[in-house]
Write a structure and sequence with these properties.
The protein has 181 residues and is α/β, with parallel strands linked by helices. 45% of the residues lie in helices and 12% in strands. The chain is built from 8 helices and 5 strands. Strand 4 and strand 5 form a beta hairpin. Helix 3 runs antiparallel to helix 4, helix 3 crosses helix 6 and helix 7 (141-149) runs antiparallel to helix 8.
Amino acid sequence: MGIYTCADLHGNMNLWVQIKEYLKSDDVLYFLGDAIDRGPDGFQIMQKILDRPNTTYIRGNHEDMMMNALEEQLRYNDNFRWAESATELWFWNGGEVTYNYIKEHNIPREEVIKQIKNMPILVCTEIKGNKFYFCHAGSDMSTINVFINETNENIIEYYGHNLIWDRKHLDTKEWYGTNNE
């Protein structure tokens, strides 16, 4: 049994097919979000990943944008102000192709929202005696610890948002093995 992670397929079915063909039936996959948007097959890929045994689908920022946009559309009965809306943000980030698929196939938005809300934001697991924390965005242990140990819903929501959206790791030099360069 192997353990794998991948993320950010963004509607590219060819990538998902390659990954799926590589995986054995007993391999564990942690999908770190963003199967949807940009490419034409995102919603189908999301469903295939959700249906795959031994797979944990962790919410990414694109799933988060989709959930917020679909909730907004339902809340305002599709009569919302486009400027600065959740739907505008989602479409601006490539979500229109996913939305069109949902609409063309009459997929109930409530069901999609429920699927996304059921996706974990953080998964903690132990592999060969080592703890691993999986989330979509780069994060630090202080954020992870607060998210795991806090009971206040507002604080949990704030730190959960960081686990989905944080990009501070892109500006750090720690990834290069040193803090001094």
